[in-house]
Amino acid sequence: MSAKPLPPRGPRPTLAVAAPFQKHLAKSTLLMAERLLAQGGTVVREVFLRSAIGGEVLAQNGRRFQPLLAVAEGGRLVRASCSCAARLLSPELCPHVAALAHHFAKTGDASIPLPQRFDASLGAHLCEEAVSLGEPLLSREDSRYETRLTARSAAGALLVSARIPRDEKERLLEIFPGGEGPPIERALRDVVATPEEIAFRKAGSASRRERFETSFWGRLANRLFLLFGDGAQT
Asked: How far apart are CA 42 and CA 210, in angstroms?
C-alpha cells in the first residue's frame, strides 16, 4: 500500500525577528505582518528598554496601533499587548507586534538578544563614560526647517550639538531631555522593573541602571542605537 502524499506546505515567512522575541511569534502571525508591511505599513516612534520594545504601527489606511512586547531573561513572555486586541497570547500574537519585532531586527544581528547588542554598542559605552560629566544644560533654537539642540557642561563646555530636521523634532526632543520621558517609555520601564528597583522607587530612589536609563546620556545612547544599530560596536 503506497503512502499518501504529504499535503503541500504553505508559504514560509521570511520576516526576520529580533532575539529574544522569535519563540512568541507563530508562522501565521509573521505572514500577516509581512503582508502588512508589504502593503505600506510602517513602524514609527519606536522605543526599547532592555528586553522590552514598544512603538506605533501605522497601517496603509492611516490607522495607528500601539504594540508592546516584553520578555524576561531566558525568553519567558512578560507582557504582550496591542490596541488592536483586548488580550494577546503567545504564540498567536498580532501582526503589529510582529512588525515591531521585525523593525528591531533591522538594527543589526537579529540572532543576538537586543540588550546584549545595545550594551556592546559604541554609543552605550561612550554615554556611560559621559555620565561623570553630569546632566548637561540644554538649549534649543527653532527655525522654519530645523531645530538646533545644544548640550553644555556646567562649566560651559560644548558636549553635544545636533541639527534636527523639523519632522524629527518632536520625536527627539521628547527623548533627549531628562524626566519621565514619553508615555511608551514609562510603560516599558514599569514592565522591566526588577523587585529591587520597585523597592528603590518606593523609597524615593533609583538603581544605578535606572538612573542611567533616564538620564540625558542614557536616552542619547538609546537614540544612537536606534539610528545606527550595530554599525558602531566596541
From this structure: 30
Task: Give one word for 60, left, alpha or beta, with left for phi > 0 and alpha for psi -120 to 50.
Answer: alpha
C-alpha angle 93-99-102 in degrees, rounded to nearest 5: 110
Are 65 and 59 in contact by the 8 Å Cβ rule? The answer is yes
Cell of 9: 506546505
Q: What share of the chain is helix, strand, coil (3-state, %, to 5)?
A: 40, 25, 35
Cβ atoms of residues 190 and 152 within 8 Å: no
Per-residue pLDDT of 35-81, as tens digits, reads 999 999 999 888 899 899 999 999 988 899 999 999 987 788 999 99
CA dihedral over 13, 16, 20, 21, signed as positive or negative: negative
Q: How far from each other are the two terminal CA atoms of the chain, in whole angstroms? A: 62
Are 17 and 102 in contact, with CB atoms under 8 Å apart? yes
Instruction: Please give the model's pTM, rounded to 2 decimal places.
Output: 0.78
**To which H or E segment does residue 218 belong?**
helix 216-228
